[in-house]
From TrEMBL:
Entry-linked PROSITE patterns: ABC_TM1
Single GO BP term: transmembrane transport
Residues in ABC transmembrane type-1 domain copies: 86-277
Entry protein name: Carbohydrate ABC transporter permease
Entry keywords, A to Z: Cell membrane, Membrane, Transmembrane, Transmembrane helix, Transport
Length: 292
């Protein structure tokens, strides 16, 4: 009987192991299919950027170009002013993201860690700001920037990005800050640490994961933003990639290969940033979900 029971137990374990392997195999197949579906637009855009106008309209979308037009990338970079637009996109995105994350962290620290009158009101105002449509602010912002001489100036973009990204940044940081252990801060105060030093030396390093999450969200919005650039900026010297792609759209002809190359160049920085920060982003989102 003992021998029979052992055989039955071994059979059951073997059967469950096989089912588990089958389940993992199906899961991997589904995930590979989803990944392929997500990568399809990138593959299409890459092939699109290597074609001329005739191939774009006459060949199937995923067909290989007869003669890959790598010169499309050289053309948009050298003669299409894309190098200037790319540099503008980089520094405006980085500046607005850094300012937003630092100010958002300061505001969240003041709301969650300090006792002062009006903290709830300030938090409520930031949350209400999330409900304001971007398009409804274009005329007031343009009028204000025009009066202070900031139209056709990159500072108008930085200020607009910071203002509109601040509410979502604070909302993401709130749950994490509420769950931070106060014992660490209390010990630092007992040791004579000032509030400013405690924030920059203790609190910010403790929130690095959620800062990475808010940082990449801000970067994606700032990098892809079009409305403010198209409204406030008129000279080519300050335009970004999202608006610069219009240079290849003419009244009678459109260089579709050059547009594809420009779009491919504009996507690469965000993909690279996400590849390097993806672990921190997932860590920050998971931590916020558990602690919040």
């Amino acid at each position: 009987m003992m021998h029979t029971s052992a055989q039955i137990g071994g059979t059951v374990k073997s059967g469950s192991s096989i089912l588990r392997k089958i389940g993992y195999a199906l899961l991997y197949i589904i995930l590979i299919g989803v990944a392929a579906f997500q990568l399809f637009p990138l593959l299409w855009l890459l092939l699109f950027s290597l074609k001329n106008n005739q191939e774009v309209f006459n060949l199937p979308p995923l067909s290989l170009p007869q003669n890959p037009k790598w010169e499309n990338y050289a053309k948009v970079w050298n003669s299409g002013n894309i190098d200037v637009y790319f540099f503008n996109s980089v520094w405006i995105t980085v500046a607005a993201t850094v300012i937003t994350v630092v100010l958002g962290s300061l505001v969240t620290f003041a709301i969650t860690r300090m006792k002062w009158k009006g903290s709830s009101l300030v938090l409520g105002l930031f949350m209400v700001a999330m409900m304001i449509p971007v398009h409804s602010t274009l005329i007031p912002l343009f009028s204000m920037f025009n009066k202070v001489g900031l139209t056709d100036h990159p500072l108008s973009l930085v200020l607009s990005y910071v203002a509109f990204n601040m509410p979502i940044t604070i909302m993401i940081l709130l749950g994490f800050y509420y769950a931070l252990p106060k014992e660490v801060e209390e010990a630092a105060i007992i040791d004579g640490c000032s509030v400013n030093r405690m924030f920059f030396r203790i609190v910010l390093p403790m929130t690095s994961s959620v800062i990475a999450t808010t940082g990449i969200i801000n970067m994606i919005y700032n990098w892809n933003e079009f409305i403010f650039v198209n409204t406030f900026i008129s000279s080519d010297h300050y335009k970004t990639l999202t608006v610069g792609v219009q240079n290849f759209i003419g009244q009678y002809t459109t260089d579709w290969g050059a547009i594809g190359a420009t779009l491919m160049i504009s996507i690469l920085p965000i993909l690279v940033a996400y590849m390097f920060l993806s672990d921190r982003i997932v860590e920050g989102m998971a931590a916020g979900a558990v602690k919040g």
